[in-house]
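Q: My labmate handed me this sequence with no annotations at all. I'd like to see what the chain might look like in three dimensions before we decide whether it's worth expressing. Could you predict it?
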Amino acid sequence: MCMNFTNGHLELDWEPKNPPFDSQFYEDLLNPELCQKQLLYILANDPSLLTQFIDSGLRIPRGITLGNLEDWGNYHQCLGIRKETDDSTIEGKFCFIDVPAGENNQLAVPELPDWADFNPIKLKVNNDTVKDIKRYNEDIKAMFGSKESSKTVDQNSTMAFKLAVCVPKPCTTQEVMDGIYGFTGIYFQYNDRYCRVKHDKLWAPADYVMISIFSLLGLLTLLSTSYDIWESIYLKPVTTLLIIKPKLFSVYTNTRQLLTFTSNSDTVECLDGIRSISIMWIIIGHTFFLMPQKQNLLYYLNYTLSINSLWITAAPMAMDTLFMLSGLLLVYKTANNMTGMKLLRSLHVFYLNRLLKLFPLLATAVLFQASIFHWISDGPVWDAVANATQNCRLYWWTTLLYVQNYINGVGNGLCLGHTWYLAVDMQMYLLSPLLLFWVLGRRKTTAWISLSCALIAIITSCTIYVFINKFPSSLFTVNDGITNPTYVQLYYYNTLTRGAAFVVGMLFGYLLHVYRGKQMRISKGIAVLTWIAALAIIATIVYSHHPMKSTKWDNRPVDGLINAFCRPLWTFSLGCMIFACHFGYGGPINWILSLRMWKLPSRLSYAMYLFHVPIILIVANSGVAPIYFSVSSTIYRFFSDLFVVFLVSFIMAVFVDSPFRNLMKLTLGRGPRKPKVLKQDNAMPKQKLARLNGSRTPQELKQGHPLPQQNLARLNGQRTPQELKKDNVGTKQNSTRLNGSKNAKNDNNENTFWGVGVVNNRFLKNNEDYY
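A: Here is what I predict for the chain of 771 residues:
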């Protein structure tokens, strides 16, 4: 175990107790004597088996001039090789090797057998191409947490060909190079990267935990759903506290609940569209940059650095949109329900509600990454998923404690690295009561002063911080200086640099609260100018990503200004748009953002954010060969990824999130109320009760009056003569009274939920997102 504290970050280097692959298994397989016997058998007796080994292994990579230095052989064919002999079983083992790349790597190649389809003298690539690919590896891959696990031959260069070799299980790659291909160490230099065989994945405690938890959850879901359907068909709903518990895990009820959308005058409808578009922008950005190896890598690099890719390279701004929405909803929902002192008295509930709200899906994502995602597929480059699995088995606690943005660096032990956003958001949420106390006070002046001072303080601190450290202004900056991993770790994941977006959201949340339920009168001229200014700022920020990607860009003062002010300006512009849309000045933009089609994606946005990166990694690393990059094919890949992510998120929301959210509401006191005792003024008059019970009133008993015919008809379930004449059916109100319950007028304060009374059900309110 190693632990270092540098640059405000804690670096942990723990030895994995439960690695994703069984390294000892590979060592135990090696047997030089058996290897020689199997090689002799293959060469002398079985040309077909020899062909399978050669066909599954070494080839010259396709597209070297386009930047591709990898060939993955035929992974599944190699592992599928199995031949029974008299004294052993010959099976395939798939290995990757690294061969130095560059013009300076001169190889003296011997005469090869006629059948060999591999000539290492062709493994040359000009130095300019090597530099371009280096730039891609160091500046683009690193920022997404790619962990380089290989060792290169040339210590002065990280570039090497990555080639596949298929060998018999007991053999090393060197034995096969000498025995089958006829190479020797002097002629063909390389380093082993790793090998794979069938059934080499290890079971870990996380697998047993997942099986236990989800077996129990599956059983509860089955029983709850069965009861719910049985009750709906054969029983009348009974409004008692005992009935709600069996329905907590019902798929039928939770699905119906998830698909129920309500709104009122306080609902900010456009937020659903903004949140949905932001989450899709994030997904398509990760789809572009988490793709597997490209055959035309240099074309991909050039496209990334061109102006045509602005709609992709500006996608990181969507993260600031989510921070702004988080701060906006925090103030907008809280300001209407509590004061500053009430917040302090219920601070534990304030924090507990947030933690319990995020925990079920986050814990599920961590557990899945540590277990089932490792088993769900396989491929020649599955090591990327295996590294993600190992990180979650070691450092799962950093993610669940929301501290992963300050523990370990980029690509060095982050469990679900994209959840840095949740860590920053939670840290700002924990600090928010320092500002909320003043915002929730009685004086509006105090609230505005506190919000303004907080925003100025954060922007000032961030400006000083970025100018001292001289950060580049984009993830895609390719000039020399601070490396992208350092930029990501110290700036991109930093709570300070993201705090302005959150506070701007709080400011607009309070502005919406101040004008809640009021009519806003804004002249058309001011409205148009506001829209023009907001859209111009957004367009300028998006375009600013282009010049900064140039190799000639070197302007640190401008980088500092962009880093300090682009995020507050972006979120301020979005806040103006939201304010205009909510008060009727949004025009067609508000109509688009308020469409009902955004309701469900917005509600599932939290689950979509959690699961999209693991799903993209699984799909990308299940490939069997480098792909040819094109924009159109990547968009197709995005839509397929989006469909899978949406489906998985919906399932997780129904099976995991909805049950635990409703359980949380019960335990925290937002479940069903106890039945209220009818007040005397709302109680049914004694005279009417007597008539409905089939008896006469005390006055009628004294006077000897018979029971009126109208009441007799009603008691017999028939219509009265007057109603028969008018062909009227008994009213709903009278039917309700006959059942001994209050009518709808007296029942306005009780909402129904799953057939039971639930008060203040915030789950079904709009803008109650899954964050």
